[in-house]
Structure formats: C-alpha cells, structure tokens
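To whoever is on call:

I kicked off a structure prediction for a single chain this morning and the downstream step that reads the tokens threw a length-mismatch warning. I double-checked the sequence; it's 168 residues and nothing unusual in it as far as I can see. Pasting both halves so you can look.
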Amino acid sequence: MEAPQRPFDFEAVFHARYGQVARVIARVIRDPARAEELAVEVLWKFWRTPRAQGEQAGGWLYRTAVRTGLNELRRRLRGHRHEQMSDAAPGAPDPEQVRAAAEEQEHVRTVLAALNPRQAELLLLRGSGLSYAELAASLELNPASVGSLISRAQQAFRKEFIQRYGEQ
C-alpha cells in the first residue's frame, strides 16, 4: 500500500525559493527589477507543472531560472540595443575602468546568448557555484559527464568570444 501523499505547499516553496530564483536570473540579465518579475513567472510555471514538484524541484527551478534569463537576454539582443548600465560603485576612481568592465560584461552576455543553450546553462549554473552533482541533477545529466561538458562549453565560449572580439 502506498503512503498517502502530502499536499503540495506552494506558498512555502515560493517563500523559500523566490530569492534564489531572482538572483540567478539577475546574474544573467543584470536587471534586478526585471529579474524579480521573471522569478514570479518561473514560480508560476513551477506551480502549473506538477511533475516538477517532486524531489528534483530545486534543479527544475535553477534550470528554468537560467533558461528564462537567457531567453530574456536573447529577447533584448534581438530587439533594440539598450544603453549599457554601469555597475560602478559610488565614487569609483576611474570611469574608464568602469566602462571597460561594463563593456566586458556585455561581451560575455552576448557570447552566452550566442552559445548552444545547454552550454550557456551549464556555464551559468557552474558560475553560480553549483557542484558537479547539483549540475547533473539540475540539467538532468549523467554525473560522470559533467566535467567534460563544462570543458566543451568553456571551449565553445572561448572560441565564440575570440571570433567576436579577438584575443583579449
């Protein structure tokens, strides 16, 4: 006889995971306000997807957050170019360094948007601090292949970056 299933507590999941999802998206798109809007959309998708509401909920949420961020990034790139936003701290000593850093961030976002979505997801999640095991669970990969997939993704990133912007 099966054990009775506990009812799904969406409100608890929402409160526990909203901040994490918003931060993952914000790392990709660099717009915290828009990231919060997209985080609500990700959690809404989660609520509407019963198969995601099991043991792998964390992985599903991370994967969907990264994909949502990448989709937003691609939407922006397809549309009109927005003014680059400066991430400079107040009183930054050298405006040229701030401009160069913002330009480099834009280059990285452009290259990520051009990569195979799986490779971009892998790089972003690894950059977010996920372990190989967490990456495997999040992206539904064989844990033994994560290292080689990351290596290939890094090589693809490097090749695309050099093709677009040259050696730096």
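Update from on-call: the warning came from a stale cache, not from the record. Cleared it. Sanity check on the structure: Residues 1-5, 80-89 have pLDDT under 50 and may be disordered.
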